[in-house]
């Protein structure tokens, strides 16, 4: 290697320095030597002086007289410079001294600045193979790291002290490597970047720390065990140094051993902890407390991830907690606690249960299944028990409101739970055929009847909407229609309807739900009532009436729209008979080819009664009025006398007498006293009757539904169903012509909207075969042929 020298030229008052090692002056050394030798031989030069820094300075030659040329003379240094090898060795010594000072946390020499260190690194990179400098630095770093190992092998310190020592060692190492990287920045940006297989100085430091410190078995085991111990303490409720745990776990991640030496052991310890905890707490705590504990544990583990664990651990960690505390015990939790939570309407706990079960596989499905089973079980106890018939509908409405609130508030209005709720209600409400439909119709009647002061119009409208929800669940809607029509007829004919608007609103809801065919007869009943008002107005304006001692109001009913009432001929006073004849003549004069049939069953009247204590008006049924009018002719009568005088059916007569002689307003007296009416009883006019009211309404016994009426209504429904089954069979066979028995039954179940048993369908098929609507196939008795 040629020796280095420096030359200076002075031109126009400026100096320019060149260095042989500079990339700005390629091959400058050889050219300058040849030029200098040539000039020294041909001319005499002025003396040169040596600068204190060892650099020879030259002066500009003065102008010779008669010459225009400027001659620049350059000479070699006259001082003896160190060789390049010595210079590089000295540079490394300075750098080594600086690195050791950093590693030992000492100050650098005052005359050794950071700029000098940068220049030494730059000289070493340019004047020798950079790899030599890299590996010298690696060896120096490795030697220092090895010297730090002994402090961790003594085994005398406890786990916490060991972790702090390890953390201090790691923290100092990182700080030292940052300073070293700054000094050797040129090496990192040049040599390292140009060689992909060479690690950066920082990575080299991490690799050596991992290799000589952390991969030592004792250090690794004590580090991991100490971390697990601290996390276990925190889980048990103790306070730990989270910053220490965080720093050490970041160390493991930086050294790329987090997953290898820590994560698996951590997850296994977590699984064992929560396995034991789940088994213990499911026995010791009730379900709400256990759910709160699980939620607390999940929150704690999420916080650990946020504070010191690696984010990649979160999924497996949370899954481990969910599996051991929830998945393994979900069936037990549902069987033990769901029913009580629903019974007590503990919505916060139910919301927590839903949110926790949403985290585990199949959790919501199992919750939905148990929710459905609970509704079926609880609802069945309401419907099946005959003792609860009186309050069944209100209890069903309350139960439905409660379950709707839970689904909406606790189960996030999930479609699964909404469908499960509907399916469960539809299932249990039809466990008892016909009765729920009948009771719902009677419940509507009680709410729409006059005298119901329990609700305003808006509240009544909301109640009707809720009733329609129950109505949708009923399979036997024809049963509801039959009882609703009968009750509606009574409300309209006796004038007991609370509100025409409410009646029409209910009618509109039924029409929207079941179609116009379902409500056509009900709408016809309202039309009859409106037409009757117009007819009576015209009748009263008729001049043929003259002066009549009584007032008559008639409702003309279309027989197909209204319920069937038994035809009963009773004996009425001549004045009433005469009035009926006048109206009949008037009506038939306006409507030809029609027949009027008088129905006294639902008639009612107001009688003026003169008692010794004062006059009264008695609001009674027509049968009650006929009985009371007999006492204008006699003060005392027997049961037989009254039956002959009125011609009222025996059962109806006994109920009528019971209402007059045994009720609150006893306008007649029975002898002997008692609640039942016997054949030997005698009845007399009660002269001592008193009452504070002027108009007194005596309970109308015939308005209350008897068991016979109920049975008759059910029989009419059954008969209507038979007609519908027959029509469906004929319709199907007419379209198919030939059909096997099983396919016919399947088609019937698809078309019929009410529950029916296979045996009933078979009876109707046999009936149609007997009436020659269809016949059995001669070759296959299980196949039917349509007979045109």
Automatic annotation (TrEMBL):
Q: Name one GO biological process term.
A: ubiquitin-dependent protein catabolic process
Pathway the protein acts in: Protein modification; protein ubiquitination
Keyword terms of this UniProt record: Cell cycle, Cytoplasm, DNA damage, DNA repair, Isopeptide bond, Nucleus, Phosphoprotein, Ubl conjugation, Ubl conjugation pathway
Keyword field contains DNA repair = yes
Q: GO terms for molecular function, please?
A: ubiquitin protein ligase binding
What range(s) does the Cullin family profile domain occupy? 435-661
Could you tell me which Pfam families the record lists for this protein?
Answer: Cullin, Cullin_AB, Cullin_Nedd8
Localization, per the record, is: Cytoplasm; Nucleus
Q: Where is the composition biased (Polar residues)?
A: 1-13
Region Disordered, residue ranges: 1-26
**Is the keyword Phosphoprotein in the record?**
yes
* InterPro entries on file: Cullin, Cullin-like_AB, Cullin_CS, Cullin_homology, Cullin_homology_sf, Cullin_N, Cullin_neddylation_domain, Cullin_repeat-like_dom_sf
Q: Name one GO cellular component term.
A: nucleus
For this chain, the family text in UniProt reads:
Belongs to the cullin family.
Give the matching PANTHER family: CULLIN (PTHR11932)
User: Know the name of this protein?
Assistant: Cullin-4B
